[in-house]
Specification:
This protein has 16 helices and eleven strands. It has about 450 residues and is of the alpha+beta class.
Length: about 450
């Protein structure tokens, strides 16, 4: 039983919506399982428990330091306020409004598409232990490594075209740093403040390297160092280095019993992606949907996807993408964004065709979504009514006191040129030198950044 200290104590609940809840304060005895009485009827222990179970998991227990009785009283108040708001929404038929329909769709569509994905796609994904074992046996390099070293360096840059004087200047600078290291200076501090490598911001850390990663001549020198030992000055075509070996890593081998779960996740992800692509094509043909990914290179009125009354032009699609967060926009290729948008519409079509919304579990979820929508829509309606009554003088005063909150920060539009040296089989310093040449050309006005990025990024 929920124990609240007296019916009269409930009178002091801070109501969120003025005039919504009128609690009965000690007017006659209440049945033993009733925790609150209001104009909406009695609230029982079971009713409150049901409401608590409908909340997100993080709210199903008191916050740290919160008394149990205070937590239950807080949730009781929320439940009564939500009940009143839901009644207001029902009376005004707010779910039938355009705002209501959009609100419900925004929460119901993901439930349907997830159900199609989980039940129609996941059931096709089959990964056996035999497949995993065969891959494990055929790719031993993925489940271990030979000896490795963790290396840092300090670097003074020259170029292949540098004059003898320029190289001599760089050599004298690096030799001075080497002298300071021998006298006890911090390698990390000098790497961070004096190195002309992109690794300076990582305190000179190049990373964990396999034999051969630095080229034969440099490799021979670095692999001869003991842990913590510092090399002499090493000359390369791009400049001068001082290397330090942080530590050596012994060869490692992962047993199949440990690799199995990781492999299964990878294989299931790959199988899911392949199955999604097949299912996408099946649904597109079955529904007769129009899909044109090449339209991304067309005009804004080019139709990229159409199914029934749903139509998405290039302009509408790009506007949708701009509404995403910065990382989400750029971490996924544009065509993949289009595939995802089209897949969602096809999954909704499939859910309707299969009448999935009539399944008991989904129907219950739909009812919960609609109940949440009623509360939210009634709250929005009350908020708008309240804001309409505010006087301009009050709004002006708030604006002037909080002017900075209404100012946009300075925004920068950036371009980037990226080269992935690991995929090209070239030494990192060769690609760094090429990028440095491009950067110098752009700064001098000889090269166009956009053109170089289009050519080689």
């Amino acid at each position: 039983m929920v124990v609240l200290p007296g019916q009269r104590r409930l009178c002091r609940l801070p109501l969120l919506v003025c005039g919504v809840v009128f609690l009965s304060c000690g007017e006659g005895p209440a049945p033993p399982d009733v925790v609150a009485r209001s104009v909406y009827g009695d609230t029982t222990v079971g009713g409150l428990e049901t409401y608590i179970l409908s909340l997100p998991e993080r709210r199903r227990q008191p916050a740290q330091g919160q008394e149990l009785v205070d937590w239950r009283r807080e949730l009781l108040e929320e439940m009564l306020v939500a009940r009143r708001l839901a009644e207001e929404a029902t009376a005004a038929d707010l779910l039938a409004t355009e705002e209501g329909q959009l609100f419900v769709r925004s929460r119901w569509d993901p439930v349907l598409t997830a159900h199609v994905r989980d039940h129609r796609v996941a059931e096709r994904v089959q990964v056996t232990d035999e497949e995993l074992r065969r891959f494990y046996d055929e790719h031993p390099e993925e489940f271990g490594h030979g000896p490795q070293i963790r290396v840092r360096h300090i670097f003074k840059r020259t170029t292949r075209q540098a004059s003898a004087d320029e190289r001599e200047t760089a050599r004298r600078q690096i030799e001075e740093l080497h002298r300071q290291l021998q006298e006890g200076a911090s390698f990390i501090e000098l790497a961070r403040n004096q190195s002309e490598s992109e690794t300076a911001q990582l305190d000179g850390l190049i990373g964990r390297l396999d034999p051969g990663a630095l080229g034969p001549e440099v490799d021979r020198i670095v692999w001869a160092l003991a842990e913590g030992e510092i090399s002499e000055v090493v000359s390369t075509p791009t400049g001068f280095h001082i290397f330090k070996v942080d530590n050596r890593l012994e060869p490692f081998h992962m047993e199949f019993s440990e690799a199995r779960s990781r492999l299964r996740r990878r294989f299931e992800r790959q199988e899911t992606e392949a199955t999604l692509a097949e299912y996408f094509d099946e649904l597109r043909q079955a529904s007769g949907a129009h899909y044109d990914s090449d339209g991304l290179d067309g005009e804004d009125d080019t139709v990229l996807f159409a199914l029934g009354e749903t139509e998405m032009t290039r302009g509408e699609f790009l506007e949708r993408i701009l509404g995403l967060g910065f990382n989400e926009q750029r971490s996924v290729p544009l065509r993949e964004h289009l595939v995802r948008a089209a897949t969602q519409e096809l999954f909704l079509w499939e859910a309707e065709r299969l009448e999935l919304g009539d399944e008991p579990d989904l129907a219950a979820q739909r009812e919960r979504i609609e109940q949440t929508a009623r509360v939210e829509l009634a709250y929005r309606s009350r908020r708008r009514a309240h804001l309409e009554k505010l006087e301009d003088s009050l709004l002006r005063s708030h604006y002037e006191k909080n002017a900075k909150r209404f100012q946009s920060p300075r925004l920068l539009r950036l371009r980037i040129l990226v080269r992935r040296f690991a995929a090209e089989g070239r030494q990192w310093f060769e690609l760094y030198e090429e990028l440095d040449r491009i950067a110098a050309g752009v700064r001098a006005g000889r090269l166009d950044f956009a053109a170089e990025a289009s050519r080689s990024s």
